[in-house]
Design goal:
Shape: elongated
Number of domains: 2
Structural class: mainly alpha
Helix content: 55-70%
Largest sheet: none
Number of helices: 5
Length: 126
């Protein structure tokens, strides 16, 4: 079973497993499990999978980590997502404000060449 399918199960079971409906951690976990699992950064994939597997496991074999460990894993995953998304926002803003975009012979933006020019001019780094 894929991590994505298990994350759907995990989201459905958060309140039952933690017995804390509408608690901040329950809400944050459900929000995390609602994300496409393919968008989770590789650096925290293990922590994400541990959370998904714990909540998606059948009741008879489920081992629930202490809340502090759940929160630690949740924070690690969310921090990595925030770091990545913040970097994307910075890159997007730099691209949008870059005045010297490269155009192809049809007048359309040549994205790879524009990014190379941005690196060459020091607007962004590789």
């Amino acid at each position: 079973e894929s991590l994505g399918k298990r994350s759907d199960k995990a989201a459905d079971r958060v309140d039952v497993v933690l017995n804390r409906p509408n608690d901040v951690i329950s809400t944050d976990l459900k929000r995390l499990f609602a994300r496409d699992s393919k968008t989770i950064p590789a650096s925290v994939r293990e922590e994400y999978a541990a959370l998904v597997n714990m909540f998606a496991a059948p009741k008879t074999v489920r081992v629930v980590l202490p809340i502090s460990k759940i929160q630690e894993n949740l924070n690690a995953v969310n921090d990595a997502i925030d770091l990545r998304d913040g970097g994307l926002e910075i890159l997007k803003n730099a691209y949008e404000s870059f005045e010297d975009k490269v155009l192809d012979d049809k007048g359309k933006i040549n994205y790879p060449a524009t990014l190379e020019r941005m690196v060459a001019k020091g607007d962004i780094t590789e």
